Amino acid sequence: MVGHRHLHGSDFVWAIAFVVPYLAVVFAFAVYPVGYALWMAGRPSLYAELIEDPRYLPTLVNTLIFVGLGVNLKMFLALLLSGFFMRRHWWIKPLLVIYLLPWALAAVQSFISIHWMLIGEEGLVDRVLSELFGVDGPIWFNDRRLALGSDVVAYIWKWMPFWTVVFLEARAAIPQNFYDAAEVDGATGYRRFVHITFPLLANLYLVCTVLSTLWTMGDFNTVNFVSGGAPAMSTEVLTTLGFRYAIESANPALGVAAVISALPVLIPLAVVLMRKLQPRELQL
Fold first, then answer.
1. What distance in Å separates the CA atoms of residue 154 and residue 247, rounded to the nearest whole number?
2. Residue 15, domain extent
3. Mind spelling out the 3-state secondary structure of 204-267?
4. What is the pTM for the complete model shown?
5. What's the pLDDT tens digit per position in 122-168?
6. What's CA 8's distance to the chain center, in Å?
7. What is the domain count for the chain?
């Protein structure tokens, strides 16, 4: 067993010199912002004020629906489409390039465009329905379910290509002899997916789902620029409600408290993510 060697003199100084920049970055970009936010939202009266606000509980429900539907549908469809893009046809690569375009486009401009496509009778979607099919389209942002559904669809459209590429690369790393052996045993199609592909990708799928959930809980652009909280602020999520508290109501402490109220969900997810990312010993 190799013992620990204590650093002395110039070795200790050099060790400190290498560590200090990392500690400074962690403090500046993690410890200080989080600590300041917790300090701002530290008064219990803020959370009593949140509960009393009739907008808060519906917003909490909206957040759970938006994140739950958006993340799970996005990840499941991305996993399925990654199998489609594994096909060996000449037209697959050009199609993949087109499929990746939503991810490459700027988020704010994309969501503003979707908003105007759904704005009503003058929007592109309703005009297409009217001129091609003779159907009067709905007024999307006058109905809570349609507005929130529009937010979810826009979110999936924007971010599903990224996760599809992640799963595509993971599928490509699976040795082909696994599939060859399965084919000899008569496992084809969905049976190969159920018994080979998904078990091998299950841990990655879980990690990606948890990570995506953490990111989506902090998503502001989708709801703010697609539905804008319409109708009558009934499709707000915690991030947009916190923004309205902080900016429109000039109450930043209450805005931070609204966002921090998601911590009971975020902390367990972060713990699960850290446990799944821990290196494991190789079994030899």
1. 25
2. 8-40
3. HHHHHHHHHHHHHHCCCHHHHHCCCCCCCCCCCCHHHHHHHHHHHCCCHHHHHHHHHCCHHHHH
4. 0.87
5. 889 999 988 888 888 888 999 999 999 999 999 999 999 999 999 99
6. 47
7. 2
